[in-house]
Amino acid sequence: MKAIQITKYGDIKDSLKIAEIDKPEISDSEILIAVKAAAANPIDYKIVQGHLKDMLKLDLPSGIGYDVSGVVVEIGNEVKDFKVGDEIFSRVPQEYMGTVAEFVAVDSKVVAHKPENVTFEKSASLPLTGLTAIQALEKVNLKKDDRILIHAGSGGVGSFAIQYAKSKGAIVYTTTSTTNLDWVKALGADRVIDYKNEDYKEVANNLDIVFDTLGDDYTFEAFDIIKEGGRVTSIIGPPDAESAKEMGMENYQLPEKLAKLIEEKSAEYKHTWMQPNADQLKEIKAMIEDRTIRPTIDLVYSFEDAVKAYEYLATGRAQGKIIISLAETFENQ
Ligand SMILES: NC(=O)c1ccc[n+]([C@@H]2O[C@H](COP(=O)([O-])OP(=O)(O)OC[C@H]3O[C@@H](n4cnc5c(N)ncnc54)[C@H](OP(=O)(O)O)[C@@H]3O)[C@@H](O)[C@H]2O)c1
């Protein structure tokens, strides 16, 4: 079968190649999926560029991609919840990474039926970003009337998180650049801050929660704009003790500057390293089907143009999700 492979660490264009590899064989608990669409996520190009090589030990060449939507073509002997022909979506665990391929095998425990009212492309846009937003916001117990700032409302995670937070009754502030103001407002945010022309800290402060999707100084500045006892939930800042443990980091110490800020504000700081979760995928399916949340897709690339998809995503300017469609290339699969 054909697959996109990471052949070495470095420049996206030089490192990613279309390769002919063996079709996966499934074990009793696994299913084989004919991939119709995969999503590109920032973690993919960070892996290619070598930024995560100490944390994720890969044997190269390796597949790329975690998000998938497609059709079940084989099931293992113990699989009860799926049958051949089912249309599914998943964020596959690390050991199955490689969804930008004709077929991918995955443990059935991390798979759910895809939302019935949207395409494979839209379904593939949801798992990684949707699970991340849900897990990061559940960690800080987001609830009705919480005032929350969600950074990068036009990003894959931010655009899902705005809609999810509104569905929980929160009052949502978000940041984006001038180009994206209108469509981000249409996602339901109460106040969209144009970071090119406004100081977000003046507009959004005394908040219950900051959702940090940007990192660096944004993580630290979150403590300037939460109220005393407020919560900061980050997917890009330093791990907290619990997430460091999950990520296998031994003897981890919170950076001193962050520890001081947490103490000064009597704040809660949580870091999320998202985990595959079929129950939460079912929750996402329901929210798509009742139109609580709508997928936000910027561009769809063909399998042959997958490298261009990653190059575009790596500019950091994507407006929602970047999708790689395999349905046309492999229509007879
Ligand atoms: N820990 C985890 O488990 C986890 C899971 C998912 C993602 N992540 C990480 O979280 C980050 C966000 O992911 P994503 O998928 O949402 O990324 P993304 O879709 O690539 O984000 C792109 C968006 O970021 C916006 N942006 C860039 N700089 C900004 C700024 N200074 N202020 C406001 N918006 C800004 C851009 O809007 P403009 O063009 O308008 O600036 C663009 O629309 C990535 O670093 C990713 O690796 C971590």
UniProtKB/TrEMBL annotation:
InterPro entries: ADH-like_N, ER, GroES-like_sf, NAD(P)-bd_dom_sf, Quin_OxRdtase/zeta-crystal_CS, YIM1/Zinc_Alcohol_DH_Fams. The keyword RNA-binding does not apply. Keywords: Oxidoreductase. The keyword Membrane does not apply. GO terms for molecular function: oxidoreductase activity; zinc ion binding. Residues 10-324 form the Enoyl reductase (ER) domain. CDD domains: MDR_like_2. This is Zinc-type alcohol dehydrogenase. It comes from Zunongwangia profunda (strain DSM 18752 / CCTCC AB 206139 / SM-A87).
